[in-house]
Specification:
The structure holds two protein chains of two kinds.
Chain A: H1 2-32, H2 39-61, H3 66-92, H4 101-123, E1 138-141, E2 150-153, H5 154-176, H6 178-188, H7 190-195, H8 200-226, H9 235-246, H10 251-271, H11 273-276, H12 281-295
Antiparallel strand pairs in A: 1-2
Helix pairs in contact in A: 1-5, 1-6, 1-8, 1-9, 1-10, 2-3, 2-4, 2-8, 3-8, 5-6, 5-8, 9-10, 9-12, 10-12
Chain B: H1 13-16, H2 23-43, H3 46-72, H4 80-97, H5 103-122, H6 130-150, E1 163-164, E2 169-170, E3 173-174, H7 178-200, H8 203-213, H9 215-220, H10 225-252, E4 254-255, H11 262-275, H12 280-303, H13 310-331, H14 336-349
Antiparallel strand pairs in B: 1-4, 2-3
Helix pairs in contact in B: 3-7, 3-8, 3-10, 3-11, 3-12, 4-5, 4-6, 4-10, 5-10, 8-10, 11-12, 12-13
The chains are: A mainly alpha, B mainly alpha.
Chain lengths: ~300, ~350
C-alpha cells in the first residue's frame, strides 16, 4: 500500500511538471490558434539562458551571492524570452496570418530547429546546472500510518508547489487583469476582439511572452532536476498528450491532464511494465489519449467541436 | 516560345483527360525518364548515388504516400516513421523466416503489413480531426518504436537489437552496386508514381479531396467517410511501408528502430508541406529539397574552406535549416509545386502577359 501511494505521489509530481509545459501550449493555442511545437525548444532555450546568465553574471560583475546571480539570470532569461516572442510574432506568425493549421504547425517546427541551434550556438552545448537551492534530500511522510512511511523527494515536492503557484498565478492573471481579459477575448474570437479595438499583434507578443515565462519556469525546474541539456527539449513530446487529453483550449484541462498522465504513466510502468518488456512510459500517455479521444474527440475539457456545412 | 499548346486540338475525351494534356509536357517527362534511367547511371559518381539519389528516391516514395493522406485526404499524420518501420521490419521477417522468399514479394508484403497497421491507427480519424488526430497518430509512432525495440520476436531475437539483410537478388540479378540499387528504387518510384497519379485523378481521389475540403459536406452528398478515410490511410501506409522496406533493405542494409524515429516523420511532413500539399509533383520537389539541403549546408564550410568547429557547424545547420523552412512557408505556403505551376503559367503567356 505504501509503495502504491509512493508511486502515485511521484506520478502526481511529474504530472504537475508536465502540465507546466502543457500550459505553454494551451496559452498559445487559445490566443492564436497556433499549435506551438516549439514549446520544448523554448524550455531548453530559456533554461540555457538562465543557467548561463547565472554563471556569467558573478564572473563579470564580481559578486558572490548565489541569490543575486540566480535573480539576474532569471531576469536576463526573461528578457531574452520576451525578445524571442517579439521576433517570432514579427518575423514568423505575423506573416502567416490566416494560413492553415498545419502550415503554422510546420512553421513552429522550423522555429524549434532554429531555437535549438541558436541556443546551443550562443550558450554552448554542455550540460549546465541550475541551482536555485531546492533541497534534494528525501523525506518520509505518514510514518505513523504505514510501516516505513511514504518516501517523497523534497525537490519534487517544491517543484510541484512552484508549478501549482504558477498555475494559480496565471489563472488570476487571465481572470482579473485587463490584459488577461483581452487575451480571453482574442481566444474567443479574433475578429470580434479586433473590432472592439484589441491590438492582435500586441496580444500575440504578450501571449508568447507568457508562454516564454512558463517555459522558463518549466526549464528551471526540469533543469535543476535533470541538468540543462539538449534532451530538455524532448519534454515537449511528453507534454503533447497532456495537452490533448485535457483539451487544447482548456487551462484546467492541462493541469488535470498532466496529473492523470503523470500518475497513469508511473503506475502502469511499475505494475504492467515488467510483464510486457518495460519502458512503456514512452507510449502510455499517447495510447491513453487515443482511447479517451475516441470517446471525447475534443479532450476532457475542450470546447465541443461542432461541424456545420 | 516553345511552351505553347495552341494547335493541339483534343477531339476525344480520352485525349482531353490524359495525365499530361500538353504535348511539350509529355516530351519533357519522357526526356526526364530517359535521363534518369539511362544517363544518370552512366555519369553519376558513386557518392552521389549513396548520399543523394537513393535516399531521394526512397523518401520521395514515402512522401508520395504521405501526400495522399495529408495533401489529398486532409488527415494530418505524424506517425509516418512508424509505418515505414512496420514495412521494414515486416519485410525483414518475411525475408528471414520464409525460405526462398522473393525480394519484391517481401517488400510488398511489408507494405501490406504497414497497411494493416495504418488502417488500425486510422480508425480514430473517423472521430478525431485536425491537430487532435495529429497527436493521436503520434501514438503509433511511439508504440511502434517501442515494440521493435523491446519485443524480440520482431527482430528475430537478434542480440544487438539491430537487424540486417544481405545478398539481395531480384530475378537472379543481385542488387549490390549503387547503380543497381538506384535503378531498383527508381523502378518502384515510377510504378508507384503512376499508380498514385491515377488514383488521385480517379473516383477515389475525388472522394479523398471532398473529405479534405469539408467532411460533413462530403458526407451529405453521399461519400462514405469511413471508406474514404480508411482507404486513404491504407493506400498511404502501403506506399510508406514499401518505402520503409526499401530504406532498410536497399539504403541502410542494417538498421534499428532509431532509423524510423519521430524525426523521420517530421522530415517527411516537411517534404510534403514544402513540396506542396495535394500535388504528386510536389512530393518529388519536397523530397529533393529536404534531402539535398542538409547535405549542402553540411558541406558549405568545406567548399569555401572556412575552418569551423563541427559542433558549431551542426548547430548552424540546424539554425539555417529552421529559418529556411520558415522562410519557405512564408514566401510560398502552398509549396514548391505552386511555384512550379505559376512558372509554367508565366511561360505559356511569355512574352505577352496580359
Amino acid at each position: 500500500m505504501g509503495f502504491l501511494i509512493e508511486t502515485v505521489i511521484s506520478g502526481l509530481m511529474t504530472g504537475m511538471l508536465y502540465s507546466l509545459v502543457a500550459l505553454g501550449f494551451v496559452l498559445i493555442f487559445k490566443a492564436s490558434g497556433v499549435f506551438n511545437f516549439a514549446q520544448g525548444a523554448m524550455v531548453l532555450f530559456a533554461a540555457l539562458a538562465m543557467a548561463r546568465f547565472a554563471e556569467w553574471a558573478p564572473a563579470h560583475l564580481g559578486f558572490d551571492s548565489k541569490l543575486l546571480a540566480n535573480l539576474l539570470g532569471f531576469v536576463g532569461a526573461m528578457l531574452v524570452m520576451v525578445a524571442a516572442a517579439w521576433l517570432i510574432e514579427r518575423l514568423v506568425l505575423g506573416k502567416l496570418v490566416n494560413q492553415e493549421g498545419i502550415t503554422l504547425l510546420m512553421a513552429t517546427l522550423g522555429i524549434t530547429y532554429f531555437l535549438e541551434g541558436f541556443g546551443q550556438t550562443i550558450f554552448g552545448n554542455d550540460i549546465y546546472n541550475i541551482d536555485i537551492g531546492l533541497p534534494k534530500d528525501p523525506v518520509f511522510l505518514f510514518e505513523s500510518v504505514f510501516q516505513g512511511g511514504v518516501l517523497v523527494n523534497k525537490e519534487d515536492l517544491y517543484a510541484a508547489l512552484i508549478a501549482a503557484a504558477m498555475v494559480t498565478l496565471l489563472s488570476m492573471f487571465f481572470q482579473y487583469t485587463s490584459t488577461g481579459r483581452a487575451l480571453r477575448a482574442v481566444a474567443d474570437d479574433h475578429q470580434a476582439a479586433q473590432s472592439i479595438g484589441i491590438p492582435l499583434n500586441r496580444i500575440w507578443v504578450i501571449v508568447w511572452s507568457v508562454a516564454g515565462f512558463t517555459a522558463l519556469v518549466a526549464g528551471i525546474i526540469w533543469g535543476s532536476k535533470l541538468g540543462v541539456q539538449f534532451s530538455l527539449s524532448l519534454v515537449a513530446l511528453k507534454a503533447l498528450p497532456v495537452v490533448i487529453l485535457g483539451g487544447l483550449t482548456s487551462v484546467p484541462g492541462a493541469i488535470v491532464g498532466g496529473l492523470i498522465i503523470g500518475v497513469g504513466e508511473k503506475v502502469s510502468e511499475v505494475y504492467i511494465g515488467p510483464s510486457i518488456g518495460g519502458g512503456i512510459e514512452i507510449w502510455f500517455g499517447y495510447v491513453l489519449v487515443l482511447f479517451v479521444l475516441l470517446v471525447r474527440p475534443q479532450g476532457l475539457f475542450g470546447e465541443k467541436i461542432i461541424d456545420r456545412v | 516560345m516553345l511552351y505553347r499548346e495552341n494547335g493541339q486540338f483534343k477531339t476525344t475525351y480520352r485525349a482531353d483527360q490524359q495525365v499530361f494534356p500538353i504535348a511539350q509536357d509529355r516530351i519533357a517527362i519522357g526526356l526526364l525518364l530517359a535521363f534518369a534511367i539511362v544517363v544518370v547511371p552512366l555519369v553519376a559518381p558513386e557518392y552521389l548515388f549513396r548520399a543523394i539519389l537513393i535516399p531521394f528516391l526512397i523518401l520521395a516514395l514515402a512522401a508520395l504516400g504521405l501526400n495522399i493522406l495529408v495533401g489529398y485526404c486532409g488527415q494530418i499524420s505524424l506517425g509516418t516513421g512508424a509505418f515505414m518501420a512496420v514495412g521494414a521490419y515486416a519485410a525483414y521477417n518475411f525475408q528471414v523466416r520464409i525460405e526462398g522468399m522473393p525480394l519484391i514479394a517481401s517488400l510488398l508484403l511489408g507494405g501490406v503489413c504497414a497497411t494493416a497497421v495504418g488502417v488500425l491507427f486510422g480508425i480514430p480519424s473517423l472521430r478525431i480531426k485536425g491537430l487532435y488526430l495529429a497527436v493521436a497518430t503520434l501514438a503509433a509512432q511511439f508504440f511502434v518504436d517501442w515494440a521493435f525495440l523491446r519485443v524480440k520476436w520482431f527482430t528475430n531475437e537478434s542480440s544487438s537489437g539491430s537487424v540486417s539483410v544481405a545478398g539481395l537478388k531480384v530475378f537472379g540479378l543481385s542488387i549490390e552496386s549503387p547503380v543497381q540499387k538506384y535503378l531498383f528504387c527508381l523502378a518502384f518510384l515510377i510504378v508507384f508514381g503512376v499508380i498514385a497519379k491515377n488514383l488521385v485523378r480517379g473516383h477515389i481521389g475525388r472522394e479523398w479531396m471532398a473529405i479534405r475540403d469539408m467532411d460533413v459536406a462530403a458526407e451529405v452528398i453521399g461519400i462514405r467517410p469511413v471508406y474514404a478515410k480508411l482507404s486513404a490511410f491504407a493506400v498511404s501506409s502501403f506506399m510508406v511501408g514499401v518505402a520503409g522496406a526499401l530504406w532498410g533493405f536497399v539504403h541502410l542494409g542494417s538498421w534499428e528502430p532509431a532509423a524510423f524515429s519521430i524525426d523521420r516523420s517530421f522530415q517527411l511532413l516537411f517534404m510534403v508541406i514544402i513540396g506542396g500539399l495535394g500535388s504528386i509533383m510536389g512530393s518529388f520537389f519536397g523530397a529533393a529539397f529536404i534531402v539535398v539541403l542538409p547535405i549542402v549546408l553540411d558541406n558549405l564550410p568545406y567548399w569555401f574552406d572556412i575552418p569551423i568547429d563541427t559542433a558549431l557547424a551542426s548547430h548552424l545547420t540546424f539554425m539555417i535549416f529552421g529559418s529556411l523552412i520558415v522562410f519557405f512557408l512564408i514566401v510560398e505556403p502552398h509549396g514548391i509545386a505552386r511555384l512550379w505551376s505559376t512558372g509554367k503559367e508565366k511561360l505559356r503567356l511569355w512574352p505577352f502577359p496580359h
